[in-house]
Amino acid sequence: MSSVERRLTPATQAIIDAPASIRLEALKAQPFVAYATAKRIAARLEELLTSAKSHRPASMLISGPTNNGKTMLVNRFINLHPIDDDPTADAITAKVLYVQMPPTPDPRQFYTSLLDRLNAPVRRTSILSQLQSQTLRLFEAIGLKILVIDEMHNIHSGRIEQQRAFLNLLRYISNERQIHLVGCGLITAVRALQSDEQLSNRFEHWPLPKWTSENGSRALLNTLEMTLPLKQESNLSGARLMGKILALSGGTIGEIVRLVSAAAAEAIQSGAERVDLPLIDGLRWIPPDERRRAAELSLGYRE
Ligand SMILES: Nc1ncnc2c1ncn2[C@@H]1O[C@H](COP(=O)(O)OP(=O)(O)OP(=O)(O)O)[C@@H](O)[C@H]1O
Ligand SMILES: [Mg+2]
Q: Ligand 2 centroid vs 197 CA: distance in angstroms?
């Protein structure tokens, strides 16, 4: 069958007639799949970046299960707006800054990571208020507009008073320097935020739920299929194939992409050039939940 009949992304079209080795290589560098919510989140992030400063800066919380594309989304945004440390300029500028929430809501560790991120000298003897004012002064100097905080659910791992103090700290940063906060995390991050009414009002919630047959998986699989360097159509979004892919992957985008890439690699190597149910069965894919259970059992945990 001719490759012209398939809808392909330009990058995939460019290699569709290349030898198997090149197509297999391209599969390893799995391209970004721009699904609808990803596009909406990207557009909203750009909007925050260009919005005028406000005394009540809007914030976003991107929540969802592990392996479902939260970090990938914010990383793409950050890569579009890197820290500019042009040596000929007076100072570095960074409109967007990424930081991971420490394992517990520890303000000292949080400010230290922010200062490290900006290559600022951190005096280990500084007291908390000094670290705070140093960080906020730097934010002003670099023109920071958006602070991305990944693993935001770690707030939840502190004692109630620690959680409350940390939420106060976030509110203070946002108010004091009119900075938009963008949090990413598991659903427990939402619960942690809800305990501070004032702050949670400020956060728009952007959930990334698991993929099911009802919530856009057809479009996701159609877009994913356009990236596959296979000569024939697989129709991944057909009811039975989609059902199988969602069941075996547990519905997270990370696992869906890994499974479909493994299937596409097999389709290239075997010469089948399309993914179908028998090919997927032949992969003997173990769903993530079962892998986890097997690992726990091997460590001696009981069912
Ligand atoms: N839009 C996408 N297109 C292609 N692959 C994606 C996309 N989003 C995520 N992935 C794949 O899924 C994997 C998991 O994504 P990511 O690390 O962003 O998940 P996460 O939600 O941040 O998980 P965790 O909560 O464990 O940190 C990535 O390594 C990437 O391979
Ligand atoms: Mg992540």
A: 25
| Residue nearest atom 27 in ligand 1 by C-alpha distance | 66
Q: Which residues contact 44 (CB under 8 A, 6 or more apart)?
A: 60, 204, 206
Q: How far is the CA of 60 from the centre of ligand 1 (A)?
A: 18
Q: Of all atoms in ligand 1, which is nearest to the CA of residue 184?
A: 22
Q: Quote the tokens at residue 259.
A: 């499974």
Are the CB atoms for 59 and 179 separated by under 8 Å?
no
Cα 195 to Cα 101, 188, 279: the distances in Å are 18, 11, 49
Which of 176, 252, 240 has its CA nearest to residue 212?
252
Q: Render each residue's pLDDT in the chain as its tens digit; 303 residues.
A: 444 468 999 999 999 999 999 999 999 988 899 999 999 999 999 999 999 888 889 999 999 999 999 999 999 999 999 988 777 766 788 999 999 999 999 999 999 999 999 888 888 888 999 999 999 999 999 999 999 999 999 999 989 999 999 999 999 999 988 999 999 999 998 888 988 888 889 999 999 999 998 889 999 999 999 999 999 999 999 999 999 999 999 999 999 999 999 999 999 999 999 999 999 999 999 999 898 888 888 887 665
Tell the residue nearest (CA) to atom 25 of ligand 1: 66
Q: What share of the chain is helix, strand, coil (3-state, %, to 5)?
A: 55, 10, 35
Based on C-alpha coordinates, what's the Rg of the chain? 23
The answer to whether 175 and 55 have CB atoms below 8 angstroms apart is yes
